[in-house]
Amino acid sequence: MMGLHGCTLKLASVPNFSSPTFLFKTPTLRFQKSPLSRPIRALSSSALVQTSTTKATEDQGVKPQWKATIDFKWIKDNKEAVAANLKNRNSDADLNLVLHLYDKMFTLQKEVERVRGERNAVANKMKGKLEQSERQRLIEEGKNLKEGLAALEEDLAKLNDELQQEAQCIPNMTHPDVPIGGEDCSTIRKMVGSSPKFSFPVKDHLQLGKELDLFDFDAAAEVSGSKFYYLKNEAVLLEMALVNWTLSEVMKRGFTPLTTPELVRSSVVEKCGFQPRANNTQIYSIADSDQCLIGTAEIPVGGLHMDSILSDSLLPLKYVAFSHCFRTEAGAAGTATRGLYRVHQFSKVEMFIFCRPEESEHYHQELITIEEDLFSSLGLHFKTLDMASEDLGAPAYQKFDVEAWMPGLERFGEVLQQLFPFQSSETSLYFLWP
């Protein structure tokens, strides 16, 4: 039981830049004819600006600001499709407000450029030989234009922040095969095995754990609060054995093992599609800092090649990462959360692939096959679900859940999620081909 929550496997891909199914626009790629032997850090002006801005804000103790590269023109041109997607995913994002703010910002940007042009024209006039009265007049005009431009730029910055805040609430578009509706509309992709029959009353994991001295919730509650636990005795060995076995099996399939940082910058969390400061967030934020505890290894692995250029010859890059994960579990309650369900800290193994956009579907299927093979090897009765649209998180294009039969609960319970995919452009990841 301990290891079931410790095996979550996911896919990320470099998306198809010409595809209209992603809202986030990837910046211009850098090309190089000879393949690179290893990833290199991007030397684009945007990367340099981000680095210097981050350094300055760190020195001042202020949270670095990050702006998503969102294709607002695509959203505007495909308003009906985006609106339908919001409805299908039961999202409360305000599309009309986003488009209103975008139009307003577009108009204000033009005004900023007009005033900046007038200021530059005045500056150029002052380079020549002028009468004193004319020079004085241009000085006053330049001063007024400078002050007006500063006010407009301040308004533009505030408007851009508001637009970003609202636009980042819009979820990714949805795979056409995803069933529409709530969780009960999810479809079964595969069913393996059958529920075991017992000739004796079945005990749940809480009863077994207490009788076998496998964990201690009471001591953990005193030390850390509710929904924490100590694993003890054979439970410790079982979790470690399951993690080690999973890593070994996945490595046989060409994956590079990783352990990851468990504290990351808030900006990296946001780039992976999560909202660390939002209401009912699952992310723990560190007070007076720009850091968060990870809720999944997907976040630090997704940032592994951030601001990098990957050679096409290096793809696919396959990683299997072990980490501890931390979640607030905001809103979780009920009998399904007793014991080792919906805890605030747990161990997890995660698969992650960086691949070419046209190969995404192929590796998606490879990952789900690996997952099903692993659970079959454990002799579990499980089913794989293609989750319905309302059950997708904002970054997800499609999600498969694996649910195993829980004899103590007499029902299936989630033991794995697989998301596919999210945008590489959010971590400024580029790739090159010959």
Automatic annotation (TrEMBL):
This is serine--tRNA ligase. GO terms for molecular function: ATP binding; serine-tRNA ligase activity. Residues 135-169 form a coiled coil. It is an enzyme of class 6 (ligase). Its EC number is 6.1.1.11. Residues 204-415 form the Aminoacyl-transfer RNA synthetases class-II family profile domain. Keywords: Aminoacyl-tRNA synthetase, ATP-binding, Coiled coil, Ligase, Nucleotide-binding. One of its GO terms (biological process) is seryl-tRNA aminoacylation.
